[in-house]
Specification:
Elements lengths: L5 E2 L1 H5 L4 H11 L6 E9 L2 E10 L3 E9 L11 E8 L6 E5 L1 H20 L6 E5 L3 H13 L4 E5 L3 H10 L4 E2 L3 H7 L2 E4 L18 E4 L12 H6 E5 L2 H4 L4 H8 L26 E5 L4 H17 L2
């Protein structure tokens, strides 16, 4: 075990960069399609996600996560878990990577890859919906690809938005979500809402929507109208269509069909705008294959930096 590296959060993060990660995610999707095994267990609003992926040529990753929304009120982190990375050639354990490091970079990097392809390059006003840890990661990721952008945050609880703005100089706070959505070029949302927060009626031509927060079958961040007004993309058909309310609910209601979805990342050439005026929408569903690609990138950078 002494020869197997454990990559902790701070030291691991110091060797990473967001653009490099999105390039690694692109390269990962050029390999054979991942074999994915997901298990979701629920107890009320508490969730256990066990996710495994195997990509021929890249290796195997197994990640387990517990999500207990009431934990922060008791001084305990809401999300806990761990990830093991195994070698492609012989299945031996290669590394244990800090769960939060992989999750932060995988989740925001997943969205950034889509934004680099779908958001207008001249996007200057980026709205972050949700002032949690993921909102902070999105600020860092989008700043790497849109260095001239102005950032605004909206959060249900104003005090949390204030705290985030205090940490990130230049970050503005929106008091009214509708007004903030109407004026943004890019909207990136990371909430745990089960009722749509963002209305299609608020959208304007040329916007890009990045939806992250919904991960359960009962969760949604936008309404049906937003889906109908946009060209809709997902990171993976396997992890979104039948599992996440953002896509699952409107398909089951007959509002959209699977054919409404333009592409997932295994058809990256389709991730492009057809005009400056169209609205693009990306559903970030995550998935163990993205954890595998991200953890492999982390280990490669860890080794490269000694």
């Amino acid at each position: 075990m002494n020869d197997i590296p454990f990559i902790p959060f701070d030291a691991g993060e110091a060797v990473l960069d967001w653009i490099g990660l999105t390039d690694a995610l692109s390269a990962g999707h050029a390999l054979p399609r991942a074999e994915i095994g997901d298990t979701f267990l629920y107890r009320g609003k508490d969730t256990l996600l066990s996710r495994a992926a195997w990509i021929d040529g890249l290796g195997i990753a197994v990640k387990s996560a517990t999500i207990f929304p009431d934990n922060p009120a008791h001084g305990t982190p809401m999300i806990n878990g761990g990830l093991n990375l195994y070698a492609d050639a012989d299945g031996t354990l290669e590394a244990i990577v800090d769960f939060h490091l992989v999750t932060k970079w995988k989740t925001a990097g997943d969205s950034l890859l889509a934004a680099r392809r779908l958001a207008r390059p001249d996007s200057r006003d980026i709205l972050i919906v949700g002032a949690g840890n993921q909102g902070r990661a999105l600020h860092a990721a989008y700043s790497a690809a849109f260095p001239a952008a102005n950032f605004t945050v909206w959060n249900r609880t104003r005090a949390n938005a204030d705290a985030m703005a205090a940490e990130l100089p230049g970050l503005r706070i929106a008091d009214d979500l509708e007004t903030a959505v109407r004026s943004a070029d890019v909207i990136t949302s990371a909430t745990m809402s089960t009722e749509p927060l963002i209305k299609g009626a608020w959208l304007k031509p040329g916007q890009h929507l990045d939806l992250i927060g919904a991960y359960r079958p009962d969760m949604r961040e936008v309404d049906d109208d937003a889906l109908l007004r946009a060209r809709v993309f997902v990171d993976s058909y396997d992890t979104t269509v039948g599992h996440i309310g953002e896509i699952k609910i409107p398909i089951e209601a007959g509002v959209i069909t699977k054919d409404t979805l333009v592409a997932d990342y295994y058809d990256l050439d389709q991730f492009k705008r057809t005009s400056n005026d169209e609205i693009t929408l990306f559903k970030n569903g995550g998935g163990a294959h993205l954890d595998l690609m991200t953890s492999r990138y982390i280990l490669d950078r860890w080794k490269a930096r000694g």
